[in-house]
Amino acid sequence: MNGVDVYVLRLGHRAERDKRISTHVALTARAFGAKGIFFDVFDRNLFESVEDVVSRWGGDFFIRHIHSWRSLVKNFEGKTVHLTMYGMPLTEKMEELKKCERILVTVGAEKVPPEIYEISDYNISIGTQPHSEVAALAVFLDRILNGEVFRKEFENARTRIIPSNRGKKIC
Ligand SMILES: C[S@@+](CC[C@H](N)C(=O)[O-])C[C@H]1O[C@@H](n2cnc3c(N)ncnc32)[C@H](O)[C@@H]1O
Question: Does some domain include residue 165?
Fold first, then answer.
């Protein structure tokens, strides 16, 4: 069992352009074991589609709009991590991070405000090449939560998959 509670902050969602990738960030956060996700921008369609997944596929993952990402990061009770290709390799900070009880991990959309580099406790990279917030978040959660994605049970699910080698089995 792993004792770290991880929360995600999605910084800078642009409703017209980022709906699909922000949805993927939220669903990846949920599937890989984060407790919930904060957005600094409210997008009703996005929020409803994530809440719809939670109601069908179970669990108590939350999606929440916050008015000030600064105050969320500054007042978070736990350690704050900003994922950026300019940061320290996750592998070098893993042992330290795994000792935390609560982590707030921030992923950007296009360009993040420079202040996030200053106020986060850690700037962490998943490799030093540009890629995607979805990939970065997935690797971070998988490593920090020790593969929770493969074990996690979602309570009160209306749909569950029965794993099979061929076809689609659900109950
Ligand atoms: C499409 S990237 C934005 C890149 C943008 N050009 C910039 O300079 O911030 C969106 C987000 O993905 C995450 N990301 C992308 N590559 C990463 C990497 N190698 N390590 C950690 N996070 C990464 C960061 O959180 C980033 O804010």
Answer: no
Name the pTM for this structure: 0.96
Cβ of 141 less than 6 Å from ligand 1: no
Cα atoms in the 13 Å half-sphere on the side-chain side of 161: 9
Supply the CATH number for residue 43's domain: 3.40.1280.10
Q: Would the CB of 127 count as within 6 Å of ligand 1?
A: yes
Task: Kindly state if the Cβ of 136 falls inside 6 Å of ligand 1.
Answer: yes
89 lines ligand 1 (CB under 6 A): no
Along the 171 residues of the chain, how does pLDDT read in single tens digits? Answer: 558 999 999 999 898 899 999 999 999 999 999 999 999 999 999 999 999 999 999 999 999 999 999 999 999 999 999 999 999 999 999 999 999 999 999 999 989 999 999 999 999 999 999 999 999 999 999 999 999 999 999 999 999 999 999 999 998
* Cα separation, 160 vs 154, whole angstroms: 9
Q: Do the beta carbons of residue 98 and residue 69 sit within 8 Å?
A: no
* Residue 170 domain-assigned (yes or no): no
CA of 117 to the centre of ligand 1 (A): 12
The structural domain count of the chain equals: 1
CA-nearest residue, atom 12 of ligand 1: 133
C-beta of residue 33 within 8 angstroms of C-beta of residue 148: yes
Residue 86 domain boundaries: 5-150
